[in-house]
Each structure stands twice: as C-alpha cells, then as structure tokens.
Amino acid sequence: MRNSNTNNWRSTALIAGAILTAGVVTTTSTTDVHADNSQNNAQVSNDQVTYDQVRATADQQLAQLQSANDSKEAQQAADLAQTNAQINQLKASHAALEQEQAGAIAQAQASAANAEYQQQINTQQQNEATQRAANDQQYAQAVSQAAENQQAVADINAQYQKALSDAANTQTSQAQAAANNYNSAVAKENDTYQGKLSAQQATNAENIKNAEASLASATANANKPYEVATTNDVSVTGRVAKPQTDFKVPAYVTKYGIHLEVRGYNGAIPVSDYTYPEFANTYYGEYPDSAVITNKAAESTPHDISEMPLDFQPGLLSYDAKNDHSEKVSADGLTADQVQVLRALALSWENGFRNNVFQNYREFYNVVNKNDGFVNVAPVDLVSTDFTDNIANQVVANRTKYNIDNNSHTVISSGMPAEATYTSVINDATKNLKKNLTSEFNGKTVYTDVNENLTTMQAGTPTLLNYAINLYNSMQGMYYGELVNPTHIGGHAVNLLCAGVRTVGIGFQKLTDEMTAKNGSGVSDRKNPSYAVTFDHVGFNIDHDANLTKEVQNRNVWGTSTVDAQLNTIKTAQYHVNKVPGTKTVTPTATDVQKATASEQQKLADVKAQAQQSIDALASAHQSSLNKLAQQYNDAKAQVKANYDVAVTKAASVRDAALKATGVVGLQAYKAQLDSAYQNLVKADQVAAQKLAADRDAKIANIKKAENVKLDAKINELVPSVDPQIKQLQDQHQAVIAHGDAVLAELKAKNKAAYNKLAEQFNVQLAAIQRRENAKRANEVRLANNTVVLPSAVKVANDGNIDTVAFPTASNPLQAETTGRVQTVSAPSIVKTATQTPIAVAPVVTTVNHAAENAVKSNESSAPVVTQTTAVAATTNNGTQTSVASTADNKATKADNSEKSVVKAGTVAKKQTPAKKSESSQKVDQSSMSIVALAATALLGTLGITYSSKKRHN
User: Fold this and answer.
1) Structure pTM?
2) Contact criterion met (CB below 8 Å) for 540 and 447
3) Are 873 and 933 in contact (CB under 8 A)?
4) Counting Cβ atoms within 10 Å, is residue 407 exposed (0-12), middle (13-18) or buried (19+)?
5) Strand partners for 536
6) pLDDT tens across 330-373, in order?
7) What are 152-166's pLDDT values in tens digits?
C-alpha cells in the first residue's frame, strides 16, 4: 500500500511540474546572425529570465510537495509498524497463555494422577516382595524339619511301596483272567457264525438256481415266432388307355423336318395345316377329314371315363362301343356335371401338352416365348375355376345368340358385335385385376395374354366316353398336328404354349341342326348332339419378366377350381391303396424278448438280493456279538484298573496319615502350594494395576478439559479487542491518502491557471514580433543561404489575420508526462508554383505524444531546436509524415508501457541520433533560429499556407 500511494503522489506532482515547464519553454527565441534582429534579442532575454523564474518556482513547489509526501509515507510506515507490533503483541500474549496452560496441565498430570498411580504400584511391588520372603522362610523351615524325621519317613515309605507292589500283582492276575474269558467267548462266537453262514449259503444257491432256470424257460418261450393279425396296404392300379404310337412325331420330324418360324404370332393367326393326310390318318380317328382308324389296339381303347389318360402324349385313342361302361348322354345333350368332367379332362390334356413340349421338345416352347421372357422357364399349370367357367359360359351364350357355328371364332368377323366377342368378355371380367396390376407395377408394362382355340366334338354313340375320346383325338390334331407343320407351328399350338396365360375357360356350345348341315361342318353323325368347344385362355405378362409374371400367376386371384373333384375321382380310380386283412409271423426282437422276460429277470435279481441280504444279516449279527464281548472285556479291564487305583489311593492315605503323625510334610507339594499362593497375588496385582491406570488416565483427561476451558475463555476475552484497533489504523491511513490527493488536486489547478496566464502573455509578444517582421520584409525573406522572393501581387494581410502559435493545454497526464522531450524534424518543402524550385524552410518543431526513449534524438543534419508543445508530425519531401521524438525532462518519471502511442498508418518513422550539445550551445542555437522560425510562420500565413497543431496528409 505504501509504495503504490507514493508513486501516485509523485507522478501527479511531476505531471503538474511538466505542465509549467512546457508552458515556459514553448516560445523561447534565439539570436539570429542578421543585424536587423537586435530588438528581438532583448525580448528573448526577458523571456528567458521569466522562464527561469517560473521554472525555479515550480521546482521549489515540487521539492516541497515531495518532502511532504515523504513525510506522509514515513508516518504511514510508522503507523503500520505500530500496528504490526500490536498484532505481534497479541500473538505473544496468546502464545503465553497456551504455554501457561500446557505447564498447568503437565504439573497437574505429574502432581495428581501420576503420583497417586505410582504410589499404588509401589505398594503392590512391596507386598509381592514380602510374600516371596515369607514363602522362602516357610519352605526352609519345612526342609529342616524333614531332615530331622528322615528314618521315620523311610519306614513309612517302605510300607507304602509294599502296598503298591501287592496292588500291582493283584491287578495282573485279574487282567489275565479277564483276557482268558474274552478269548474263549470270541472263539465260541466264531464257530457259531461259521455254521449259520454255511447253511445260509446253501439255501441261497438253491434259490438262485431255481430263479435262473425259470428265466431260461421264459426266454426260450419269448424267442419263439408267433402269428398276429394285420392289415396290408395293397396298391390298386386302374386301367389307363395308352395312345397309339404307330407313327410318332419324331418320325415325322425326321421325314419332313421342323420349321420353327411362327408366322403371325403377333399378327394374324395362320391357317391350320392339321388336315394333312399323314396326321389325319394317324391321329384323328373318327374326325371328318380322316379315314377310320384301322388299328384298334385293346390297350388304346378305354372302357370308361376312369380309364382316360390324364397326360397328353402323342397318339390316338380307339373307341369300342361294346365295351363302353360310361354314363349315357341324353338327346338334350350334356348335363352340367358331364360338362365339368369334360372340362377336367380337357384342362389336364392342355397342361399335359405344355409340360411335355417343355420337357421333350423345348425348341418349340422357346421359339413361342422367345420375346416374353420365358425361354427355358417352365410354364405354370393352367387352372379352370368359377372365374373361367363364367367366361366360358358367357362366350357360349354369345355364340348361341349370334348363331356362330363351329368353324367361326368368337370375333366380330363372325357376325357378332364387339361387346359380344371373347376378348370383350375377358376384358370385362379382368378389368379390375388389370387395373390393380397396372397400379402395382407402375413404370412397368402389363401385357394381357388372351387367345381362343376352337374345335368340334361329336359322338356316334351317345355316351360320355365317346365324347371324351372324340375330344381327345381332336385335340391331338389341334396341338401335336400343328406343332410339326411342314412350314411353321400352327396357331392353336402357339396359343396353348404361350407361358403368359394362367387360366382357360372351356365352353361347350351345342350346335343347331342348321349348323351341322352346313358344308364343311365336319359333323358326320347328326343323330346325337354335336358341340363347338372353345378354349379361351387368359393371363398377364408383367413387363416380360418371368419372375414377376409367375408371382402374379401364383396369387389367389383367379377364382376357385371347379374340376378338382372330377380329376380326383379319375386319379383315384387309376391308382389307389386297399386295406387287406391277414396274418403274419413275427420273430421276436431282442427288445421283445427283453420285455417278455422282464418279470423273470426281476425275480432272479430279487433272489440274488435276498441271498446277499441274508449273508449280510448273519455278518451283522456276528459283528454285534463280537462287539458285545469286546465291551464286556473292556468293562472287566476297567474294573481291574479301578481296583488297582483304590488300593494305591488307600496306600497313599495310610502313608500320608503316618507322615502327618510325625509332623513331616511333602516338600514338593508344600513348595508348589507356596508358589501358587504367590502367583495368585501377582495376578491380582496385575488386574488392580490396569484399573489404577484407567483411573489415572480419566483424571488426566478431566484436568486437560478444565484447563482448556479456562484457556478458551481467556483467548475469547482478548481477541475481540484486536479487530477494532486494526480497523482504526486502516481508517487513519486512508485519511492520510485522501488528504494528499486533495492537496495535489489543488496544486494542479493553480499550476494550470499560471500556465494559461503565461501562455497568453507569450502569444501577445509573438504577435507583435510577427507584425514588425512582416512590415520590414514584405517581399523577401532570407533563410540561411537561400532567399524567398514573394510575388508583388500578394498583399500583406492585416495584423489581425496573421495566425499565431497556439499553446495547447496539457490535460492528458501522459501527454504532460512526455512534454519537454524535444525533437527536430527535417525541413518541409514549400512549393509555390509549378515553375519554382522547392526550398528548405526553418524546421517545424513538434513534441511526440508517446513514452519512448528518454534520450534526446535528432537528425544528424538537423537545424537548431525550438521547443513547442504541439503534437504535430512534420511532412517530408516525399509527402510522408515522420513522427518526432522528444527529449526527456531530467525529472520525468517512466510512463506506463500500456499507454505508449504508436506510429499511425501512413507515417514513416525515422531513427534519430541523440544530440550531443552542451546547454550553452543549445541556447545559442535556439536564439539564432527563433526569428527565422517566426518569420517563416509569418511568410506562410501571408501566402495562405497555415501550419496548425493538427496533422495533415497530402
């Protein structure tokens, strides 16, 4: 606290002194070499005297203030020392109290508890020593008395030894008798046990033998084979007609070649070529344009619907009306159930054709589906459902309505409107499904695969079998016949092999007499109803992607099958399994034998277990007997020992009574008795000593507690008085600081007033000098070796318009602190006109507002120095600005580094070298240049060029 206040007072005083000093030296002039400046010399001398007087006054005031401040600091130090002494005194008092308390506690411990405790311990030790001495004396007396009665004691001991010998002999004889009795009893028990054991072992062996014989008999019986009733599964394969294979498709392919071109697949359906004689004679049988089949093989002739093949291999079936066991067809035509049977067969045959071609004639399948994404991809089986039955029934109804015969498809060209065509019927039925698929597969193309095949079905005999065989043979020509046409695959085969179709609606349109009577109808027998059979295939191909298409085909969106029952009936008839009752011989397995003989095996195990239990029981009883004999023997030995002990005790009692009568005691026993009494005393003293120590510690603790209470009371009484004393000292110290600040503030105000007054006087004097100089040299001014000629046209302004040198007020402590550090700058160039040569003028003197170097710096070729307080940067010839360094006052203090000014942007700082001139030479230089500086200032004012205390940038 002392050092910081001292620096504040000293800094404030020095700032005030610097202000006064700066105000004095600002306008000092020096003597010029010209004779016409003598008047100014006198003025300068007076100003110098005034400056010295004011400066001396300021120095004296500073010295007085410094002395006062030092006195205040010394007083403050003394106050602090006094405060520290008082605090140390308080600490010393506190330590003395603690020392006093420690002494009291130690004294209490020594004088009270420890003394009493030690006295009690000493008493115990004295008692123990007295007891030892008494024991030694008593034992010595006993030894002396024993020596006197030695003969009597010897006789008594001899009698005692004889009694012991008699007792020992008696013990030996009794122990031997007991051992003999024990050994005899053990031998008898062993003999008894061995007899019982032999008898039991013989019984056990017989029982085990009988049980083993019973098990062997049961095992032999269990291994004998036996008959059991059973039901056998008998596979029944029904009769299935096989197509005739006199002329196979491969043979025709070899003869005529295969043409895979599918003309019209995406255009018009080509004309069918299945009427070629080779196929008509081979496949069609009773088909209009064919000869009657001459070879009616029995294996190719079904006798009932159940014998119709469900697959569809190449080859025709024969019909034998005499062996037709199927149901009749009335003159009115097929019933609904009969139609479903034919639908089931036709569906199975279409799937058979598709699968057979894919498996065995893959080239045909691939060429049909080469653009649809199904090359080498197996087709999904077609289905016939309630959905497709409705389509088929609607197609039949439309055909009937518009009188479409069996040689015309369900299309517009057959004479029916567009809404009645098969495509219209299918589109109406599938529009919702297609809409959903189109939405689901947005961005992909959903193709609709629909087509229609048409054939004729008739029968010479009105039975269901005849219609079925006729339809089978007709489909053979329609599909296999077209598959191997000489030029291309026929349209019907192409329609069926399209992998995109999933369902087929099979319709049976009953033909009218008018239709059958037409030429080319193909109906040979008009007695029985004939039918146009339509196959309307429906499906969707998803963007020609087989995976997506098959996924949609396998969805449950195509309806419920209506032909499963009919197909299952035919399948069951062609193959089923019958349950036939019978018997069979069973040869028992090892497991069977094990189960059959389990009870006998258990009996044998039980017999063996019982045999072992009987042996174990005999051994246990035998061991129990031995243990009982051993216990009896131990009891006898114990009794012998007890008898011996009684005799010994009695002998000792007789001996002791005799010795007592003589007054002699046993020295060893007596000594042991004395030692025991002494040890009991020592133990009692140890217990008492522990209690004494505990009592002593409790007393010491109570003493410490009481003394600490007293010490705390004294400290609490003393400590509160210290804080007010310290607070009072601090308040007094702050009062001294406040008083010093007030004194300094008052002094700074007075100094500022004196400075302002003196500055005003100097301004008046300089103005007068400027007016006189302007009058003398109106047109020219001589500066060193150069002459400046003023233009004649320029008039001198009146004295009232001439600028004067301003004396700034140093209000910033830092500015005041650096004031007086004088530095010269290079002379600025004054350019009049474009034709004139720049000339050097007297130096402009500035004081830099920073706290840099304390040494005086100047240019090596600088002009004489005139000090000035304005913080101005002189302008160099190249237009830049140079900061001006200052000379340090010999009493200036070092400024705070945090408040140093820096060179601003756009200025060039020039390094200065310290001027090494004596004080007298500096005064001469100042005198010689003062008039020149004032004249230059006046000249610039006349030309309208003004230097102010602010910076300028060109």
Assistant:
1) 0.42
2) yes
3) no
4) middle
5) 452, 505
6) 999 999 999 999 999 999 999 999 999 999 888 889 999 999 99
7) 888 888 998 989 999
